[in-house]
Amino acid sequence: MESASGRHSGENENPALTTPLSCTGSPERLDAELGRELAGYVECHRALGSGLAAAKAEMDAAAKAAQEEARKKAEERKKKSEKPTDKPADPAPSTAPTQPVLPATASQVNPTGCGMPG
User: Fold this and answer.
1) I need a surface site. Which of 12, 19, 112, 113 has the fewest CB within 10 A?
2) Residue 74 belongs to domain spanning
3) Does residue 37 belong to any structural domain of this protein?
4) Contact status, residue 1 vs residue 33, Cβ threshold 8 Å
5) What is the mean pLDDT of the chain?
6) Would you say residue 74 lies in a domain?
7) 94 lies in a domain?
8) Distances (CA, A) of 97 to 16, 94, 103, 118
9) pLDDT, tens digit, for every residue of 66-111?
């Protein structure tokens, strides 16, 4: 006996989930083992389907998180480029005249010539 699934893979369906089931064997062996084999096939099919769905959801979540992070970084760069600098500008040199340094007068100079007051 040989059996094949009549399902055709759709555009969004994974080919691994549409693999046809094929059974060959003697009638006695099919009678004895077909039920167990079908149950195992169905369980594997369901597990594969849920595993693929979980993997797809995880990849979608990771892609969404990566896009969000990239968007935030782009916004931060944009804000930095638009933000004026907070550093004060170098002060411009004063154009006001400064008082000249005058030489010491005779009364300010130590008559002894050493650092001690005279």
Assistant:
1) 12
2) 15-82
3) yes
4) no
5) 75
6) yes
7) no
8) 89, 8, 19, 36
9) 999 999 999 999 888 886 655 555 555 566 566 666 665 555 555 5
